[in-house]
Amino acid sequence: MKQESAINARRLLHCAGLSLLAGLAGNAQATEGGGSTYPMGAENYLSGAVPPPGFYAQFYIGHYEADSLRGNDGKKLPVDFRVRANSIAPRLIWVTEQQVLGGSLAFHAIVPLVDLKVEVNDQSQSKQGLGDIIFGPALGYHLSEKLHTLVALDFLAPSGDYDRHDLANIGRNYWGIQPVFALSYIDPAGLNIDAKIMYDFNLENPATDYRSGQELHVDYALGWGLGNGWVVGVGGYAYRQTTDDRQNGERIEDNKGRSFAVGPSVKYTSDKGWFLTAKWEQETAVRNRAEGDAYWMKLTIPF
Q1: 55 by DSSP, 3-state: which?
Q2: Are 113 and 133 in contact (CB under 8 A)?
Q3: 130 by DSSP, 3-state: which?
């Protein structure tokens, strides 16, 4: 039984390299390797507010740990398992002067650097390096002084190191396409609401003939502005896989992943134009994925 569980866990985790930047592991896979191309829960306050024209640098710093694999019934699988991942993901944003369909045209690219360690029973592997790059265009709208939205189309490129036989990988070896809609309601001395809604279309992994199912997920934050640059509240994400995986053209049933994460979240905005967000989120209601905790910080600096 233990040997069989180790084999299953190895299948679950061979694509877990995006780990912190991508969620992680699941039972009978639930998307290949149980992970996702997007870093679940990475966004926080101001996710829907496109800044004024100019160049901006962001830095996402994260830590993820999990020691529990949940199956299709939500029960813990009998596997000695642990994942630890650290990441630094620089992001460059260019907001142009150009207006398209009434919105401010912007472009961005995220280049993640990942340090990953996976342990399953008596097996262990570590990897460090470049993860999968995310890039794309966006349109930002300022509907009022407090209400802001954006629409975007992100592309997720298989730039990270990948080997189908490895226990840990820092790339997923397939392209992803992700439409995005985000909303921010901002009151420095009152209610703050943020939601970034994403839908993932995953292409096939040519090394395994495996195509992960489509995924719907939302990063959210809810807080109260204290009037002195600080916002305090809660944040996290909600995730649901909407279609089945396929391998060699055959549908794989009863392996859809889902999870929900919540924890404390804060934001500080300086009078010099930079801002910092931070949160801790704990995963719960997990199916066909790993269950753990994540810590995120995001620093935004205008040029």
Answers
A1: strand
A2: no
A3: strand
**Which segment of 12-26, 36-50, 99-113, 278-292 scores lowest on mean pLDDT?**
12-26
Mean pLDDT over residues 204-217, rounded? 96
Nearest to residue 282, comparing CAs of 241, 237, 219?
A: 237
Q: Which CATH superfamily is domain 54-276+285-302 in?
A: monomeric porin ompg (2.40.160.40)
Confidence of residue 42 (pLDDT cuts 50, 70, 90): very high
Q: How many Cα atoms sit within 13 Å of 247 on the Cβ side?
A: 12
Q: Where are the domains of the chain?
A: 54-276+285-302
Torsion over CA: 86, 90, 95, 100 (sign): negative
Q: What is the DSSP string of 160-216?
A: S---TT-S--S--SS-EEEEEEEEEE--TTSEEEEEEEEEEEE--BTTTTEEPPPEE
Contact 173, 162 (CB under 8 A): yes
Judge contact between 277 and 47, C-beta under 8 A. Answer: no
pTM over 0.70: yes
Closest CA to 302 of 52, 45, 103: 52
Mean pLDDT of 195-210: 97
In the numeric block, the tokens 């992960």 are attached to 212
In sequence order, the β-bridge partners of residue 301 are 57
